[in-house]
Amino acid sequence: MLRVVLVHPQIPPNTGNIARTCAATGTELHLVEPLGFEISDRYLKRAGLDYWPFVNLHSHDSLDTFKAVHQQQGGRWIAFSTAGASSYVKFQFQTNDWLLFGSETTGLAPNVIEACDASVYIPMSQPGVRSLNLSVSVAAGLFEARRQLGYLE
Q1: If we measure between CA atoms, which residue out of 115, 109, 107 comes closest to residue 137?
Q2: DSSP character string of 38-86
Q3: ∠91-27-125 over CA atoms, to 5°?
Q4: What is the C-alpha to C-alpha distance for residues 91 and 111, in angstroms, rounded to an integer?
Q5: In a domain, 33, yes or no
Q6: Is residue 135 one of the residues assigned to a domain?
Q7: Contact, 114 vs 136, CB < 8 A?
Q8: Residue 126 maps to a domain
Q9: Phi/psi of residue 106, nearest 5 degrees
């Protein structure tokens, strides 16, 4: 089962949109604190609409706590980063992958990327654009992984 992991997300509506995507796809959502908002934030709830009961949400109070959960469950860490080693469409996803995304302002820290089994990027045509919106990046990455694994049929 694929999992989406947000490491230190900052913007409530992005996380709410991602939660909605995870609800629609039956994908676990893991939030690694510190967060830039409270889970009860009204903007977070509003972006997720009434889909929150369908979100398999896990919150971790630190990266170390999250690492312990990962070690128990296994699977690969796949970092999504503008400095990733290969295009996400050329990467071969596996069913037990954890798709890691960093905060909207700083992305994943270098030490987190180094701890990952692989890193990927989403190609962009315009060199002046630094990155895509976090919720768009998660949707693109999650749906590509699901497509490769035959979950869209």
Answers
A1: 107
A2: -TT-HHHHHHHGGGGGG--EEEESSHHHHHHHHHHH---EEEE-TT-SE
A3: 40
A4: 21
A5: yes
A6: yes
A7: no
A8: yes
A9: -125, -10
Q: Which helix (H) or strand (E) holds 15?
A: helix 12-25
- The CATH number of whichever domain residue 87 belongs to comes to 3.40.1280.10
Ordered strands of the 3-7 beta sheet: 57-60, 28-32, 3-7, 98-101, 77-80, 118-121, 86-87
**Cα atoms in the Cβ-side hemisphere of radius 13 Å centred on 115:** 15
- Residue pair 44/15 in contact (Cβ under 8 Å)? The answer is yes
pLDDT in tens, 91-107: 999 999 999 999 999 99
Q: For the chain, how many structural domains are there in total?
A: 1
Tell whether the model's pLDDT for residue 85 goes beyond 60.
Answer: yes
